[in-house]
Amino acid sequence: MTTFVPNAERLLQAAVDYLDAELLSTLEGYHHFQLRICVNTLRIVAREMVQAPALEQQEQERLQHLLGHAGSVAELNGEINDRIANGQLPLDALGLAEHLRDTLRGALAINNPTWITRP
User: Fold this and answer.
1) Phi/psi class of residue 72: alpha, beta or left (left: φ > 0; alpha: ψ in -120 to 50)?
2) How far apart are the first and last CA of the chain?
């Protein structure tokens, strides 16, 4: 069936583009600052909509590999946190640093991708 309504990603991008390119320059002071925060927040939401499913799947696969069993990301993260805290999983465990680096990189790709490209 043909859909005549753009998808959520395109609608969100159109709203962000309007707020940033058209409205922001007309405001000053407090309202300019608050709109800048709203634009940045909407950009984070848009990146999360696109990137989060794949990033979460990759994180789950890494956690399952590290822990040796299946589970949800929340369950596996809780377990890995507990194992690190009580010394069952040493910080130099094979693959742990890479997992933490990749997980942080994924979070930064959503929250502020410019942090990843900074020297």
Assistant:
1) beta
2) 48
